[in-house]
Amino acid sequence: MREVEQIKKDVAKGKIPPVYLWYGEDRFLIQEAYQVLKSYYTLIDPSGSGIERVSAKDFSPAEICESANSMSFFASRLVVVEDVTYFQDGQAADLEPFLEYLEKPNPSTCLLFIAENVHKGRKFYKALDRSGEILEFRSPKRQQEWIEWVQAEAKTHGKIMSPQAAAQFIEWTGHQTGVLSQELDKLDIFTGERKTIREEDFQEITPRTIEATVFQLLDAVANRSAKQAIKALHEVLRKEHPLRVLTLLVRQVRLLLGCNALRERGGNSAEVPSSLGISPYEAQKVWQQSLRLSTKQLSQALHECLKTELALKTGGGDAGLLLEIMIAKFCRKE
Asked: Beta strand 51-55 with 133-136: parallel, antiparallel or unpaired?
């Protein structure tokens, strides 16, 4: 998100720090940032000979430092160190070459470390912080952050999405920045000269996620609408194997039961992500849905899921019909 914009500013000014540390779980954003940084060096040298990518698993710190200190014909080099695990326990002694290099990094080289996790208390992290720039790449967490990210991405294509359309797009497509970006590329072409991306645009060309359909199915169950629930079931069965659908239903029912159990103990929605191991955004949705489904109803639903799974695995009937019967039972009044 904003990290990529920061790198674009560094590139535009031609002020690349001698050392970068990029970390976080969003590999798509990191790859996007790398392409921006790479463009600076390929502009200087279109052959790309000044760019070197190595794995921390295959090269020692001493070898990497030697590479960073070497000179290039075009005077600017980019050395990318991937798969960084230097923040794990027991590696401090092996990092002395880096600590020495970071005291006086080669100004003609940008040494970029890419890691999934870091430990901010480590000597290595502090040395990196003193010598260069550290950026965390994370996916949006809250709904408003997701909406703003989608709107910003649409803007890069010269398009506009209203907050309502962006929210619906996220619900429809899922919460993966890479997938959302690819679908926006398609929508850019689909809408042509038209500036505004509307809800009907992505509903026409973008596949709806199975998770979104499962959530809609359980909303119909909460409303006791067997007709709508079975309609949603048919939609999801067109995309996935019955056992996969059942697995997703079981997961969702267990999450809802977890929310109800947490509520009964006096807990609140803020505790859901850590208690159930899900994202804050999903936690908010599940918590709200759990308010409409009783523990008794969910327990019965889980029991029916297990019975249906046994029938599916032992050839107890047509898979689609078995799931329809199960959903119909979900919708019965208590």
From this structure: unpaired
For 282-297, letters b (16+ CB in 10 Å) and e give bbbebbebbeebeeeb
Domain map of the chain by residue range?
2-136, 143-205, 210-330
Kindly state the average pLDDT of the residues 263-268.
Answer: 91
pLDDT of 106 higher than 70: yes
pLDDT in tens, 275-296: 888 877 778 888 988 998 889 9
DSSP label at residue 209? P
d(CA 199, CA 202): 6
**Residues in contact with 248: Cβ distance below 8 Å, sequence separation at least 6, in sequence order:** 210, 211, 214, 240
Tens-digit pLDDT profile for residues 122-179: 899 999 999 999 999 888 877 788 899 999 889 989 999 999 999 889 888 887 888 8
Q: Is 282 helix (H, G, I), strand (E, B) or coil?
A: helix
CA nearest neighbour of 210 among 166, 258, 243: 243
Q: Is the pLDDT of residue 302 over 60?
A: yes
CATH T-level topology, domain 210-330: Zinc Finger, Delta Prime; domain 3 (1.20.272)
pTM over 0.70: no
**Measured CA distances, 325 to 142, 221, 298, 329 (Å):** 36, 13, 16, 6
Residue 267 is encoded by which pair of tokens? 């807990």
CATH of domain 2-136: 3.40.50.300
Q: Write down the CATH number for the domain with range 143-205.
A: 1.10.8.60
